[in-house]
């Protein structure tokens, strides 16, 4: 494990770490910078080797996304195939848009990453140092959690085409400008697509990791500032005799010190608010796209599930018609037991099996449509307030 850590540290040493504004930026962003460098999307590194490495990865990822869009436009003949293809394609396109937006605002993100180096950011007490460590460790845990969940999900994507009994199937729905469906070409092409798809998925995760790190970074600053306000008097009394607190507070020296301290905290508050406003502006459009894409994915998945559940209900009802058309009128009902059994099946079919969501409502297209209409109506009402 130590050897892997040393290898990882040495191979992912990047310009973002070398140009770090200080220990606090490195504490929060080191892992993010390293993962971004490994994925090939670091924009500060311009060495020849890395530019070749990054260029190959970016071209491969771009080619894969173009093939997904080509499949979506030209080869999706049914609603099910469109839904199957649009899920992955939409995630990749939104990730690409978020990266472009982030690169256009790289000056702002650079400023946000170095915000803890502000002269007004006070971590002089053990409690505030502990708060910084807490948020940095939490950021690291969530980073590992996101990468772990993403890797597990990718594992399922890789296994599925190997067990679905479809010849020459890939883990994604994409149309390529060449034929790979041969016994010799397919294994090689499958491995290539697997590697490119992994890097594309890592690219999606990198966007989330960067956003998460900046949000945790801001949360830490707000938490530390809150502690500074709560303990402003104690900070000003740090070198004074606290047993004589009432007398010390009334002195002009203390009042001047308190006012200076308060001004510093006000400046830090303004600084954090300005940073939050800038982050809000840069994230507004990408997060709207992310929310829209997530909502569409949820709607598509829900539609697919309710469609098949509704189909089960219809086929269950159809059993009664099938019994009626089974030729019972040709005299077979005179056979003992035949008429009773047919009548029993027809009676059961009159009450078809209906799948439900926790017993609250039926899983059917009618209930799905009703739920969508209700949600839209609720949003419309809330917007009026």
TrEMBL record:
It holds the Pfam family 7tm_6. GO terms for cellular component: plasma membrane. It is a multi-pass membrane protein. The keyword Acetylation does not apply. The chain crosses the membrane at residues 56-76, 82-100, 142-160, 188-206. InterPro entries: 7tm6_olfct_rcpt. Signal peptide: none annotated. Keywords: Cell membrane, Membrane, Olfaction, Receptor, Sensory transduction, Transducer, Transmembrane, Transmembrane helix. GO terms for molecular function: odorant binding; olfactory receptor activity. It is found in: Cell membrane. The keyword Membrane applies. Belongs to the insect chemoreceptor superfamily. Heteromeric odorant receptor channel (TC 1.A.69) family. One of its GO terms (biological process) is signal transduction. This is Odorant receptor.
């Amino acid at each position: 494990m130590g050897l892997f850590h040393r290898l990882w540290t040495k191979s992912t040493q990047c310009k973002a770490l070398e140009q770090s504004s200080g220990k606090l930026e490195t504490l929060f962003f080191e892992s993010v910078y390293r993962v971004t460098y490994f994925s090939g999307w670091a924009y500060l590194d311009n060495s020849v080797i890395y530019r070749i490495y990054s260029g190959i990865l970016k071209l491969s990822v771009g080619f894969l996304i173009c093939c997904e869009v080509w499949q979506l436009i030209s080869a999706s003949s049914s609603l099910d195939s469109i839904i199957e293809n649009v899920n992955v394609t939409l995630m990749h396109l939104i990730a690409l848009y978020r990266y472009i937006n982030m690169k256009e605002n790289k000056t702002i993100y650079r400023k946000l990453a170095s915000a803890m180096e502000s002269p007004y950011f006070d971590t002089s007490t053990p409690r505030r140092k502990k708060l910084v460590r807490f948020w940095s460790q939490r950021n690291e845990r969530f980073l590992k959690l996101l990468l772990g969940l993403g890797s597990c999900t990718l594992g399922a994507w890789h296994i599925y085409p190997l067990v679905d009994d479809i010849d020459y199937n890939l883990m994604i729905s994409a149309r390529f400008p060449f034929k790979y469906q041969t016994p010799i070409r397919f294994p090689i092409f499958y491995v290539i697509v697997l590697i490119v798809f992994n890097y594309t998925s890592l690219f999606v995760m990198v966007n989330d990791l960067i956003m998460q790190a900046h949000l945790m970074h801001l949360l830490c600053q707000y938490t530390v500032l809150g502690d500074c306000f709560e303990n402003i008097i104690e900070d000003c009394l740090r070198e004074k005799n606290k047993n004589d607190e009432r007398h010390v507070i009334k002195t002009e020296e203390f009042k001047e010190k308190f006012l200076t301290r308060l001004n510093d905290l006000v400046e830090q508050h303004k600084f954090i608010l300005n940073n939050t406003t800038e982050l809000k502006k840069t994230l507004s459009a990408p997060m709207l796209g992310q929310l829209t894409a997530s909502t569409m994915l949820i709607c598509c998945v829900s539609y697919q599930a309710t469609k098949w559940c509704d189909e089960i209900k219809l086929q269950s009802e159809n059993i009664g018609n099938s019994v009626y058309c089974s030729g019972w009128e040709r005299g077979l009902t005179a056979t003992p037991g035949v008429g009773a059994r047919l009548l029993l099946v027809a009676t059961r079919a009159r009450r078809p099996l209906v799948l439900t969501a926790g017993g609250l409502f039926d899983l059917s297209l009618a209930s799905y449509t009703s739920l969508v209409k209700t949600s839209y109506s609720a949003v419309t009402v809330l917007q009026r307030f």
